Amino acid sequence: MGNPEERWYVPQPYDSRQRRGLEAWLFGLWEKSMELLARRVMQRIYSAHFGSSRYPSFEHIRQRVALALNNHHSLSEGPIAPLLPSMLDIGGILLEQLPALELSAHPKRPFILFSLGTRYSWRSASGAALQQIFVHVFAQFPNYDIYWTYDGNNGSAISAAYTHIKLAKWWPQAQLLSLPHARLFITHGGKGSLTEALYFGHTPVLGLPFNGEQRANLGKAQAKGWALMFDKRQLTTDQLLCGMQRVLSERSFKQHIQTAARIYKDRPLNASQLTVYWLEYILRYKGALQLSGTARELPLYEFYLLDVRLFIYSMLIILIFMLFWLDKRSE
């Protein structure tokens, strides 16, 4: 797209902290290497399906991308970075028109939603150990209904012992988070889950990340005051109990996510309207390549001014060498 990458002062969306100096340069080099590898894979897939002469080449298609629709909102999620008009934030677009929750599934009292994502299995060895911690802690919150996404083997025993714990392999997560009497969301910190919590602004988050991206997502939410994060591998009953009590009792968590939700939705046009406008704009102007920067047409060495830097550094080295040489002669 030709969008500038000012990584010297703009952290990457999936990184939990700002990298500077040599570290930023090395991280950028690693990222570019991964991008080149990914591009080769995409090239093979494209060639397998559209390899005949009837279709343009993969590189030609890449150079003519007119618009990137990003499931993101920079003002509330960060980082604030220079963006070309062709880079469009449409975070929350999937949540603007949710199907209504069936009346029979509508919670009747304050509730807590607990889901570690579709990939996590409570039947695994680690899941069985973690399950004991959560059952023990959830038993101490009888005034809340607990909606738990659960695929384990002990569902019948748990439901019989604790009527306020509701178990199912799937819950309508977004619809539940949209209800004003949702009180807490316990999650692995996936992008979609945190977007839903942020969009509706009712539920502070208690996070148990599995990987670096989720850890970064939750780290940013925690820094903004609407989440707490724990390491699930070292989680104890006391930690979980204290964390839940803290998020449920301290008003600051609720206030911070309400403020963040207002910022998230305070836009001149909602995400759907914005998307329709710019797609029609692209059609009106037959691709509207004027939205993109010229940087994508530059070779890598020109984009990063490597030729200019090489010249400057060479002149400095020559100057230093000449000064040493003159100093030697003066002796």
UniProtKB/TrEMBL annotation:
Subcellular localization, per the record?
Answer: Membrane
Q: Which family does it belong to?
A: Belongs to the UDP-glycosyltransferase family.
What GO terms are given for molecular function?
glucuronosyltransferase activity
Q: Which GO terms describe its cellular component?
A: membrane
Q: Does the keyword Nucleus apply?
A: no
What EC number(s) does this enzyme carry? 2.4.1.17
Q: What is the lineage of its organism?
A: Eukaryota, Metazoa, Ecdysozoa, Arthropoda, Hexapoda
Give membrane topology per the record. Single-pass membrane protein
Q: Which domain of life is it from?
A: Eukaryota
Name the chain's protein. UDP-glucuronosyltransferase
Provenance organism: Drosophila busckii
| Catalytic reaction(s) noted | glucuronate acceptor + UDP-alpha-D-glucuronate = acceptor beta-D-glucuronoside + UDP + H(+)
Matches recorded under Gene3D superfamilies = Glycogen Phosphorylase B (3.40.50.2000)
